[in-house]
Structure formats: structure tokens, C-alpha cells
Amino acid sequence: MHLVPCDVTVDTRPGDRQTRAHCSGAPTGGEGSEPMRLRRDVKTRLITSTALFGDCTPEEVAEVAAIADEFDFRPGTALTREDTEGNEFLVIIDGEAEVARGGEVVATLGGGDWFGEVALLTGGRRNATVTARTAVHALVIEGHRFRTLLQHAPDVRAKVERVLVERGA
Q1: Low-confidence ranges of the chain (pLDDT < 50)
Q2: 104 partner at 20 to 30 Å CA-CA among 13, 26, 61, 65?
């Protein structure tokens, strides 16, 4: 991942298909606390609640959830940078992020919002810089894994593309 300059640790428990990635130094809820980790059903509900995947079947959502990792980001962290190659897309679980184009803030994103998918689907460059305004907890889907999913699941691709057309992306 090319998201934050830090050491990332990954915690996968035997028999659990979820992966929990945590950026050291990112907020975790206080001294001595463990990083939040979503249960599979909560992760699935979050993915289903986004317009991007809202029309997907439970099986399709499970495929998306299987490739989504969780990350925590500190306030001020650039989650994407305008005019750079897109390597991942994010769904915000908690926190706020500012969207800027040409250095001007044009939107604020919060829980349930997503960004970064256009560059993955088009192969184009990022059209905005997104910066964590507060501590952000997000699902991150790496580009290669997402493109592989879309190649093997054409129905998911069609649904994602339809949402992007409706959104004017």
C-alpha cells in the first residue's frame, strides 16, 4: 500500500477470513486499547450500505469484504493525492476527510462515503486529493485485488459501473 509512511502490521486469526491491518502510530481509541476490528457481518453491512455495492447480492458483497482491509489514519494524512496513479480505493467507516481539487476544498466525506474507485476503473490519475480531517478508520481495497475481482465477477463490475455513471464519475 502506498497510503501512509509507516509500518503496517497485519493480524489474521486462524479460521478467520478477515484481515486487520493497523498503521502504527495511528489512533486506536486510547492508551492500552486494541485497534477496532469489524466483525464480518458488520463489514458486510457497511459495504452493502454504500451506493457503490448496494445492488450486489450477499455473495458478491462477501467477495468484496474478503478483499477489504481496515486501516486507521491520523488527522492530516493524505489518503490520495491529485494527479497521481490510483492504487486503491477507500470506504470511510468513521471520521472525516476533505476532498480538494487544485488546492481548493470542494467536499467533506464521512462514514459510508467512498473514493478512489474512478482511477482504478479507468486507469487514469487521481482527480482529487483526499486528506483525513479527523482520525479516519477505513476499509481499503487494493487496486490489483479489486480489478481481479471485477474480472472474475462481471456482474459486480456492471453494478459498480452503473453507479459511477449515475454519480457522474
Answers
A1: 1-35
A2: 26
